Write the structure tokens for this entry.
Amino acid sequence: MFNLQRIIHPVEPRAFADKYLGTAPLLVLRQSPEYFGELFSMADLAALIDAERLRPPEIRMAKHGEVFRTETIANTLRAGRYVLSGKAKAVRVWREYHAGATVILQSLHRHWPPLQRLCDMLGNEWLSQAQTNIYFTPSGGRGFTAHADGHDVFVLHLSGTKSWTVYQKPHSAVGTGAKQKARGYGRLLKQDPTELIPLGRFTLRPGDLLYLPRGYVHEAAANAEPTLHITLGLAPHRGTYWMRECIAVWCLWLAGAEVGAALRGDPRWTSLVLLAAASTALGLSGGLHFLLKANWSYRLARRPNLAMGVMQRWVSVNVVVRSVVYVAVLDLCLFGVLW
Ligand SMILES: [Fe+2]
């Protein structure tokens, strides 16, 4: 299974954290074309497009920095500013691709098991949220012009060759006259490369890795053959995530307090009702999230061993670590209430 150590190999995680994380780009040229092969492939991509299971914005297209309107690749229904989109039509996607547009599969980790496991692993390792975007570019194509991203990215190159230019980080944040995006996913802004000093020009081949900290301006173009790469984004968890975690801990604290009160023969009904409501909300949201993920895995990957996959997810590192922390908190609460 891939984790950070395997992604950046042969660089050691400690050296990566000291020298590169958040401060400097890292380039690993490893001449091992199959290194990332188990994560995704050209055949997987073609099958996903041809099966017409993806709905914008899960699939998008861009050319020279311009993202296509949803109507270009899917049937839509507009109601004011709301757009209901159907599944992307394979014939339209391939037509635009052959006209030079890049295919972008956004957040495929939500329903592609190898990428799902990768993001879960990295999210747990770094206490961050990890997400993937897949970029499939025709020969000579360029999806986006020079820009900086609002989060750290790892580029895992899978197929073809792509020429990259990374520029020195501007002193005045990223550009002038533009509102800088708060830390999180997304592009900070487009850049005029003539105003920037190149830091390095290089070619990525299958198996190579590029790490770019947030804010480094970069651009890339496919060479003589179609290219495929995964962009793995790492960003700190948003406030809603931590709010959920806090509510979960609060539920455990309430539970501990209530057990203590019940043992003393004096249950407090108000906090019991609060506890029931909060834990039900948490359970419903967590359960819904889990069921949706399992459903996507089943429908898209068509895995016959879904039951085993479900069990593996429940016994994942994420669940075990979180359970240990919560049990420790519960013990502390019980200790405080009873003694
Ligand atoms: Fe980017």
